[in-house]
# Entry
Amino acid sequence: MREVRLVSRAAGLPRPENFEVVDVPVPEGDGVLVRNLVFHVFPGLRLLVGDGDGATPLPRLSPGDALVGAAVGEVVSAPDGASAQPGDLVSHFLGWREYSLVPEGRYVRLDGELPDPAAHLAPGVAAYSALTREAPVRPGETVLVTGAAGGVGSLAGQVARLLGAGRVVGTTGSPRKAERLVAEFGYDAVLSREEASAVEGVLKAVPDGVDVVVDNVGGEQLRAAVGAANQDARIALVGTLSSQLAPDGSGTSAPVELDLFELIRKRVGLRGVLALDPEMRGEWTRRFGEWLRAGEIAFPHTRFQGIESAPRALHELLAGGHLGSVVVAV
# Structure
């Protein structure tokens, strides 16, 4: 089989030459053997393959290590007593290879709730958790989503609309993406990166202020969102793309200066979003499947073909080349 390995740690944003696709034996041993069908290419990999020294949510990769990421595949063989059997679809975190040997308890058996296996890789649970738990939106409220063209943001606008938001505004650095977000993905307006980095720019699109913020960017856009926040506004902190995608630096820290007086005076709430709760993930999958089948939501993504395309897919994702999620069909 083939798998993608790290060749060298990246200084700045990783490039295709930091990786290689190698032939290795199909793994053997205890666990369920899965033939992977599709895996997720996610921006957080920058933290795992970079040469920084800050804390990371997952263990750093060393040269020679295979990359990791969410994947969906078909069980080829399983030991006695396993919760999945040959022919079952499962999701797991050992993507970036054609076959994975996944220990019991490290995979989730899928039951067909979503019409496309790749949809299980959609990062919408973060958007759904933000808008229902960490910063719950109420009918008629105004929602601001920073980084609206990313995997989370392209779903967050649609979810906010389905949950009853009155006005949904996003931010992006691409005029082409802005047009699509308005035309296809539930946004009323989309601000440029420059507009979104100043309170005055945000208030041009939301003159009555913002009630809920789904922040995928941090930095100046988060500071501007606080300035435009209404009384009792809720801010869900999902990502830190302003530092994660910065060419210089490691992406492992995301400092930002906020006016605490503004937060206190307006009673603004800030909560981080990890969306690790299995119950929340199950609720999202059920509702996502219902919305997909009813044609009420779309899964914006770019699908690369073949494992050999994965290093290029990561490079293009980090360069902002695609709207929505990026997946590789093995």
